[in-house]
Every structure is written in C-alpha cells, then in structure tokens.
Amino acid sequence: MMSSVKIFAESAIYNSFSVERMNDRIFDNGFPNRLSYHRILLVEKGKGALSVDGNAFEIHGREVFLLAKGQIYNFDQLTVVSGYLLCFGDCFWEKAPSSASNCKAVLFNNAAANQRLRLNDTEMAELTSLFDALQAEHDAPAYTNQIDAMAAYLKIIMIKLANIKITEEGTFDSQDYVLYRKFMEELSARFRDCHEVSDYAQRLGITARRLSDLCKRCSNKSAKEIINGQLIAEAKRSLQFSSSPVKEIAYHLSFGTPEQFSHFFKKNTKMSPASYRNHFISIGVQ
Fold it and tell me: What does the record give under GO molecular function (predicted)?
C-alpha cells in the first residue's frame, strides 16, 4: 500500500507578511513544504537547486523565483542563497492599491509559467534597492499606517516584476495583454471545473480564436496549452504528495471518468497517473 509523502505546512506569519534578508543562508533539509503564502525569492547569488511541484531549478544568482500559495517546494540539501525572501498572504495583498491587482494576477495565477525570472544588472540593482527599503520599513518601530507603507512597496515590486515579465516575453500592455491577465484570473479561479477555451472566451466577451491568438502573443502558448498546464500541475501535486486514489483526483478536477483523466494525463506527460506516482515512491521521496 502506498504511503503519502510527508509534507510540512508553513506556520502562520504575523500580519500575513514578512521580508527576510539572507546572507549565505544554508537550507539544510530537503523536506517538501506546501505554501500557505505567496513568496518572492530574490537571489543575488547562490548555489544548489530549488524544486517546485516536481520541477527542478538550478540556482545561480541574479534571478527571481515566484512561488504561489498552494505550490509544494523544497531546496536541495545544503543549498546556499544570498538575497531576500518575501512572503505575503492574500489578505495583506488587499491592502495594496487595486491598480496593481493585474500585476499579481499575471505573475502568480499561473506561477508555473513564471517560476523564474532572469534579471539584468539594472533590474537587479532596482529590485535590491526596493527590497532594502522594504526591509528597513519592516524592521522600523511600529507606527500608524506602517502596514500600508509596506503594501505600497510590495505594489511597486510587483509592478517592476510584471514589467520584467512583459519585457522578457516581448509583449506590451495592450488591450490583448489586459485580456490575457483577465483570462489568467479566471483560469486560476475556475480551472478545476472549466476546461474549455470557449467557456473562458465567452466570459471575456471574445471568440475562442481571439483568446488563443492573444495567449500565443503574450505567453508563446495557446489558451488550451495554458489550461492543460494548470490541470497537469494540480494533478502532479495530488499524485506526488497525497494518497488520494486516482478516481478521486479525476473527480476533483471534473473529469467525467478516471479513464478520461488517465488518458489526458498520459497524453500530456507520457506517463500514466499510476506510473507517475510510483516513480516518486521508487526514488524514495520522503
């Protein structure tokens, strides 16, 4: 009988917000953790690897990792990182001005597509300066509206990161990109129940063809590829880090039958759900 993998849950964070300066911090255990908060990891320099939902990223430096609430991550043992770790909850984000909400949506609603952002020297310097200021604000004696001030810094950081993402993909803040952001918001809320491009297009008031075209321009993936990617990421999390039967996972993701889910999973991963799960048991994930 399969035993589920031991996963650690995050402890509650005061005010749903924290920022921490790391100087050659060593991560000395490899246990997986399920995120209760969103995280922004600014890496100035480092050595080792970070795994998110089973996808491994070698750490080098001059990069940002975005981890969304609900994702499962772990560092390889003895990974060393210098930089900043910022954690925030949705309730803290609500304190940020609403004009930045689309930036959060495009970065975190499909975090798997934005897991790592490479930075040039100018971007690294700008973000480091913002994190320095945010850290100073966070560590200052408490005063009225201090949380609002920190939320304002978070808004600026989020806008900067969204702009880096847009530049990286060669996109711009056009009407198509606004629609793309709205699609990502809808997808994050509905992907377990809504699998069809036409349904999302209808909610946005556009045709399925236009939705797929604008997704291709903004992310180099079709709308269907993005939807399927979200479903596969959730399925992998459930298979790797829970003991739920395949039929329950299929039901949770609104597939008509376990066979339909298995066919979908194998088509997209080249492995059956059972084979994928057994792979992680055989390599001894603890």
Answer: DNA-binding transcription factor activity; sequence-specific DNA binding
